[in-house]
Each structure stands twice: as C-alpha cells, then as structure tokens.
Amino acid sequence: MLDALQPKKSATMNPLNINMAIAILLGTVLLLSAIPKLNRPKSFVLTVYEYRILPKPLARAVGITLPAVELLAGLLLICGVAIRFASLVAALLFLCFILAIAINLRRGRRIACGCFGAKNEGSISWGLVYRDAVLLVASLALVVRGDSWLGSDIWSVARLLEPVFHGTASYIVFAICGTICISFLSRSVSLVTRKKAIRQAGSLTT
Fold first, then answer.
1. pLDDT surpassing 60 at residue 6
2. Band of residue 92 on the pLDDT scale cut at 50, 70, 90
3. What does the pLDDT average to over 51-68?
4. What is the reported pTM?
5. Cα–Cα dist 129/94, whole Å
6. Most exposed: 5, 36, 46, 175, by fewest CB within 10 Å?
7. Which stretches within the chain are classed as H helix?
8. What's residue 7's pLDDT?
C-alpha cells in the first residue's frame, strides 16, 4: 500500500538510459566524422598536413589511421560493447582535436576544420574547441559510468546474441567491428599509396 503511494522515478532519469543516450550520441558523432574521411582518405591526409603540427610522415600515418579509429569507437559505442574502452578512445580523439585546433588558433591561422571530412566545411574557431570539450566531458563520463571495459553493457545488442553464443557475444561483436575497421583502413592505405605511386610515376616520365 505504501509502495503504491511512493512517487515513481521517471524512466528518463534512469542511469541506464543516460548511458545509452550518451553512447549513441558519441557513436553517431564519430561515425559521421569517420565515414566522409574514409571515402576520401587522401583529402583528409592533406587536411592533417595543413594543421602543421606533426612531421609529414607522422601526419600522413595519422591521416590514414585516425578515421578507422573513429569508426571503431563509434561502432562499439552504438553497439554497446566495450563502452569504457571506446569512450576512452573517443576522449583521447576529442582531446587531440581540441589541441590541434587551439594551437592553430593561437598561431592566428584560420584553416579548414576537416572535422567531418567535408571540403566546404567552415574554418576552425573557438566554438569548435568548446564543442569538442563538451564531447570530451561526455566521453569521460562514460569511462566512469560504463559497465565494462571489453564486455557488453546491459542495453547492448550483444545481449540479444548471448543465448546463441553463451557469453562470447560481446567479443564476437568486437571482432566484427574490428574487422570492418581494418578493411576500411586497408582500403585507405591502398588508395593513398596508389595515388602517391601514380604521382611519382608521372614525375619520372616528365
């Protein structure tokens, strides 16, 4: 009787729902950022060059691998697998973005952001730094609040596969996400190196 008179907690305030909402939001942002860069890997490598922070060989390596890392973290967050690991990766990515943008703003440079891989995207600004800072805080919150470093959260799609795979579903989902990212990474390496080889061949014939 007394229980019936107690005010019920809103489902929207459930920590589970908050974790799921944050994870899906972060995962969506990372996927929207990664996919255009993976479609045009050479263009993103040039964008990383333009920031003028890393030596050219290292900048090229970052330009090739970073979109695949974004893709992996985004897929894991949306699938609800390895939430704390994926959130930590996301936090490190957003921290790198903040530093790269802030350094160039302090230099007085207004270069293209390249945040979502679009050539017509606006220039860097302090507004982008603040936006990435909010995403950084959200990522760190999930690092603290997430259920597992490598397992699946209670709302994860991997939980639907548990009756079939008996405790290994989260690792299977992780492996699938990793395989997808490796295939995109291999494609990016192939496209970038092919264009470089074509350019070098052209210079030899002239």
1. no
2. very high
3. 91
4. 0.79
5. 9
6. 5
7. 2-5, 15-39, 41-51, 56-79, 83-106, 126-145, 158-165, 169-205
8. 44
